What does this fold into?
Amino acid sequence: MLLILILVFLGVFAVAALLMVASGTLASQKARQVLATLDSVLATDTPEAKEQVVNLRKNERFSAIPWINRELQKLELAPRLHRLLAQADLKWTAGGLLAMCTAGAVIPFYLIEARTGLLLAAVPCGLAVGAAPVAWVFFKRNKRFGKFEEGLPEALDLMVSALRAGHSLIAAMGLVARECVDPIGAEFRACFEEQNYGLEMNTAMDNMINRVPLQDLRIVSTAIMIQRESGGNLAEVLDKTSHVIRERFRLKRQVMTHTAQGRLTGIILTVLPVVLGIAIYFVNPEMMSILWKTQIGIKLLWAASGMIVIGGLIIRKIVNMDV
It folds into this structure.
């Protein structure tokens, strides 16, 4: 019995050893292949070599379809859409977003125009449905930025505690990346990993600001950069920065409270003409249909729509205050 157990142990050990050797051989072969490619690229200056350099870099796909991905890489709009989707934390691609907007605009426009023949009604409906995916992306982006802004003071307090305990700035950022929830943890984790990969602190902080373009984060980045240039107590600097961000956030909420009536007035004045027009149409369709059956009625509809949009934008500009 003992002999059988020894033989089984030796057999399992031999299989595991062979698997480890095989995996190590494959990894070493891949490593040698990558190093050989890098050496050949650095030693030459041909277009083919430059193409190999591009292939070794991080590849961002804008669409799952290859030819659409190639075309989108030539446009300046695609990287902006990709950054917008990343800021919204959505797994969509730029090509998918453009496809959804196009389908959402064309299909309702075709159905309404084919059924009713009213171009005046088909165009706004098509534009509204086509803009819905972009509006959803901006909604998710603003919601994520709001969570980041609310969690930033607590993250700074955690960094201050780590610095006062004797940790370095990079170690404090790693602690925030581990302990804080997303999106705070995800963004600080990306910044922490970029520094581990060899990027300078200035570059890593600039990258995080590009991913999360918030004024509060710019204040934190400026405070850290000034402290690294001039020296001083970084824990105290971050503590005061956290206090400034909290006071700024409190003032912003106070402004939102005082402007709530103005924002509600803007919403009511924007929606009321549309709701009233629909209600009148159900009560007396013949009277309301004059607006899109006569030339003067169509002109009045366009003028009313333009004035509603302009009025809503003016009210929005008045009640939105930068703090």
Remarks:
- The chain has three domains: 67-126, 144-257, 259-319.
- DSSP finds 15 helices and no strands in the chain.
